[in-house]
Amino acid sequence: MRFLFILLLIPFYSASQSYLIDTIEISGNKRTKPIILFRELPFKKGDTIDVSNLTVLLKKAKENLLNTSLFNFADVDTFNTTTNTFSISIKVTERWYFWPIPIFEQASRNINSWIYEKDYNQVNYGLFFALANFRGRNELLRFVVRRGFREQYGFAYSNPGIGNKQKLGYEIKYLYYRQKKLAYSTVDSKPVDLYTNKYNYQNS
User: How far is CA 168 from the centre of its chain?
Assistant: First the structure.
């Protein structure tokens, strides 16, 4: 009976065993700074983790990393396990961060007006591009250059994590619009335009 009692206690003791996180190794982050990954982890080097909570914490770490939208894949696992310590390996595959998008659009009130009025000069064209994970800190940098009927120039910069705890963020944005042809009245439900060689409308 005594031998059986000891055997029953062994699984219970093992399930409640705690381990110290000895090291956390990161690989695959060619651009992303390690601090960006570390702030998403529900644990840190030196923490003591109960083995019964380990699976949940590793899953949470993986979900947090993928939710940053910086990585296509993330794998979080343990290695170098001893009697009371282990190490954690984090392997990530980064996304493509540079996105150039061409702009070509009609600038009339709607597509029917554009076709009916046959003013095919009322088009906008240009380029919008975004650089995600700027400087490897999950910052987002965007630029737009739109030419044609209604010109637009601008940029935006956003930083989602500032301060010691990386919990605050901010955005800086500037947009400038201008156009030469401007509708100032309507006759028989049709717009009457003012058009000169100068820009009749400017806004920022």
Answer: 15
Question: Collapsing DSSP states into helix, strand and coil, what is residue 29?
Answer: coil
**Secondary structure class of 188 (helix, strand, coil):** coil
Strand partners, 144: 128, 154
Cβ distance 32 to 70 under 8 Å? yes
* Contact by Cβ (8 Å): 18, 50: yes
CATH 3.10.20.310 domain locations along the chain: 13-94
CA 52 to CA 83: how far, in whole Å? Answer: 15
Query: For the segment 148-160, what is each residue's pLDDT rounded down to a tens digit?
Result: 888 999 999 999 8
Sign of the C-alpha dihedral computed for residues 67, 70, 72 and 76 taken in this order: negative
The H-or-E segment that residue 12 falls in is helix 2-15
Domain 13-94 has CATH 3.10.20.310: yes
pLDDT tens for 73-127 read 999 999 998 889 999 999 999 999 999 999 998 777 666 666 666 666 778 899 9
